[in-house]
């Protein structure tokens, strides 16, 4: 039994295999429509979500499986004071696989110590978000056709943005990668991420505080929302929230072949006028999420077409 708590729990070869499966499901969905017959996914979401939870649920339905769960901590016994350990011990009896999101960093690790079924981390605080990264990798492969030789700009809340942390860890394993880190000084990438995945691996990187300085020469511009719920005080959030906004004007200096990604939800960091620009890949990216999760569920349940 395997848990996916961090994107690095998957080898590069396994990522290739998952991306290939996700693409095959996109091309031939009918072939996969019964693979998870009689299997149940539990989605335990102690924090808000639209795409992650619904794409997990759509993924399981479309594989012919069943879904149960809760979408807010207040409707679960967590509100009565139950521990993650106890919740997971119990839910392990009701489901074959569990996707969980929690505001506390490390909660899925605790869950994995008590689970008798695979645990998938669907986002833990400001830490990791491996299935978003799998979604991002499917998107990059589909849009650009490669993982090597990419210049990737990451813009916005690099401090609290868990999607950024997982994406950097994943991309740091490929060749010819360059990172352009675009954020206010207060929202810089945590030192443990830059040390482990960039500096110690001798990956070239540039840090800037403006999009104008960072956008030229990018293959991917990965925008993120300032993570309001992780701030200690509202004043800091209000001061920082409008620093980095991608506008049509700024897109004029971006390469023609660059794609704009965003895990969503967007607040105001990408002007809606960009939505019709062919380089805006964020809604196509969200569509990839369901297929990436279908591939992952099949892998963790050790199911193949024809089983
Ligand atoms: C992200 C998350 O939850 O970390 N959303 C998502 O899963 N697509 C990004 C965010 O909330 O800003």
Determine Rg (CA atoms, Å): 19 Å
Gap between N and C termini, in Å?
A: 18 Å
The proportion of residues in beta strands is: 5-15%
Strand order of the largest sheet: 7-6-5-8-9
Oligomeric composition of the shown chains: single chain
The major sheet is characterized as: 5 strands, parallel
Work out the number of β strands: 9
Describe the global form: globular
> Which ions and ligands are bound to the chains?
N-carbamoyl-L-aspartate
Mean pLDDT score, rounded? 97
Helix content: 25-40%
Q: Please write the string of helix (H) and strand (E) elements.
A: HEHEHEHEHEHEHEHEHHEH
Low-confidence stretches: none
**Which structural class is indicated by helix and strand composition?**
alpha/beta
What's the helix count? 11
Descriptive terms for the model:
single chain; 307 residues; alpha/beta; 14% strand; binds N-carbamoyl-L-aspartate
What features would you describe in this structure?
Helix 1 packs across helix 11 (282-300). The protein has 11 helices and 9 strands. It has 307 residues and is of the alpha/beta class. The protein has a 5-stranded parallel β-sheet with strand order 7-6-5-8-9. A 4-stranded parallel β-sheet has the order 2-1-3-4, sandwiched between helices. The structure holds N-carbamoyl-L-aspartate. Residues 51-52, 123, 129, 132, 162-163, 224-225, 227, 263-265 line the site of N-carbamoyl-L-aspartate.
